[in-house]
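Think of the structure tokens as a kind of shorthand, similar to the way a musician reads notation: each symbol stands for something richer, in this case the local conformation of the backbone. In the example below we present two proteins back to back. Begin with the first one, reading the sequence and then the tokens, and try to describe in your own words what changes along the chain.
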Amino acid sequence: MTIVDRFLDYVKFDTQSDELTNLTPSTPGQMIFARHLRDVLEGMGLKDITLDDNGYLMATLPGNITDRKVPTIGFIAHLDTSPDMSGRNVKPRIVRDYDGCAITLNDEQGIVLSPDEFPELLNYRGQDLIVTDGTTLLGADDKAGIAEIVSAVDYLQKHPEVKHGDIRIAFNPDEEIGQGAHKFDVERFGADWAYTMDGGEIGELEYENFNAAVARVTFRGRNVHPGYAKHKMINSMRIANQFVIMLPRWETPEHTEDYEGFYHLVGINGTVEETVLTYIIRDHDRDRFERRKKELEHLSRKINNEFPGCCSIDIKDQYYNMREKIEPLMYIIDIAEEAMRRCDVTPKVQPIRGGTDGAQLSFKGLPCPNIFAGGLNFHGRYEFVPIRSMEKAMEVIVEIARLVGER
């Protein structure tokens, strides 16, 4: 089975996560997919295969170096897809030898993937691309990563001339809702360090990420018949709107890049009686991150000064910047860079404008930078993945295993 065959098989599984269920995995489709992968790994003859009740699947490819001790390394990808768009009934299509023109994803609905809106498409002219039908996301985040890991393990099994130590692999649930590493058993995994295969375009190598928190701001109003509401009604939706416009207009995802942080309003649910705003807070710098949280608390106090007792806020940290855990171990970055160069891939070391399970795992004692999986335009209908990028990611995994064995 080729890497493309694996990927096309994996995207059939509906594995959207859902932060509202308070379960692990948060949706049943993730466990269905995990059981399928367990069967795949058993069929390949891997060792120490475990799938726990929370949907964490782990396995070992035993090393083939017997005359010396070699570090155990790991490769990790996540089972779930983003709740931002449906992942049910994904209908992928391969665009052969992409010519640089707009790609019609769905003629009936007029959905087009165009380089006018997505100029990065032009970097992949002449390559084969896998796209959606415009009605769902694709799922390359992170089923491309899973396909790459399984394909690399398959290659290493078939090429014993590549000398390597023990390789641990893991597929976990609920990364997209910030809970992927919450119940990851680092001790059981038993790797000296690992790499998440969860980055974007080819060449990406990341060991810096956002500090992240989620804030839920609740506004309580008072509902009165609108014909008799003067000086009596308190409309929580109007007060919530007042709160929204108090935040800096330019500190939002659509106006920031590189190391710039933001406030991102991701949900509004409201009636006259009660409105809840859900924000995510992001910043690479820890001090600025803490100031952003304090600013939300400050604004909630301002609202309460005008409307006593109306506003309450709950802020929970999700993960932190893994840089502080990786910098003392920069050789694991050096190995990944060298592996890319051996595969004729130019490393692009850059900060993640997002999160990855590797951030939480690094703080749990498993240093875990992030490597490209190859996909672009994640979390929406315009997601696509170049086949060559997936193949190169697989080759990088093999070369990392080889380099660790050599060193």
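Once you have a description of the first chain, move to the second and do the same.
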Amino acid sequence: MATGKNIRTYFNGDWHDGDVPIMRAADHGSWLGTTIFDGARYFDGVAPDLLYHCERANRSAEALMVTPTVAAEDMAQIVWEGLKRYPVDSAVYIRPMYWAIDGGDLGVAPKENSTGFCICLEEIPMAPQNAASTLCKTSFRRPVLESSVVNAKAGCLYPNNARMLVEARKRNFSNALVTDAMGNVAETATANIFMVKDGEVLTPVPNGTFLAGITRARHMKHLSENGHTVTEKVLTYKDFEDADEVFMSGNMMKVTPVTAFEDTQYQVGPVTRQVREMYWDWALSEAK
């Protein structure tokens, strides 16, 4: 992730300049990891799908048994208020966050209606159009719902992703293509994944081990509306070795072409370029 600057924090009902302290040592979120966040993007004066990200933040809190305290519409309005301090050409990462404050019996689950909330705005540049990623295999896998809160964008899930990235970068790759417990491809360490084969766009079927992202859904809609066949299906490493194009989909950078998976090399193909063009055309003309 690019280094951030120009941070603003909404906490306790007010906007504050800088990266202000928000948690205490005894907060449930500090010592037992009951935190969630979501991420939206502001660029060129728009914040695409901001309301959807705020709605998902509340769903994530509920999945982690943390009571959300801010309606999604109000959350989006607070974000827009905070963005007024940034130039219109800024690129800002938007993170609404909840965490549990007091624990319940034995500190296992947070008490109802004991919730912290903040929003962090951090100026982080969008990736240049020629940016690309390389992928490798990883020894770590996505967890399942029976063992982890994979139906939430929970902070406690991300140390596992960090292990994947460290492993990949030690091998001089920029990211990892990650499988689920069955050995089928789920996503990368930081984003959802698509591949193209013989003109068909393929992406792993959501199976409860990864979040099927908001930006992912937006790309699928654009592709389908523009005549592409988009299929969610079980995919393996072999499918990606045989792919014509591969690209990542995530809120941070929206579309990232992949130029290698292990020893397999790819060109940045026409579908990948079209996905990026369609997203930016939509965002700048329709997104609120």
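Compare your description with these statements about the second chain. The mean pLDDT is 94.
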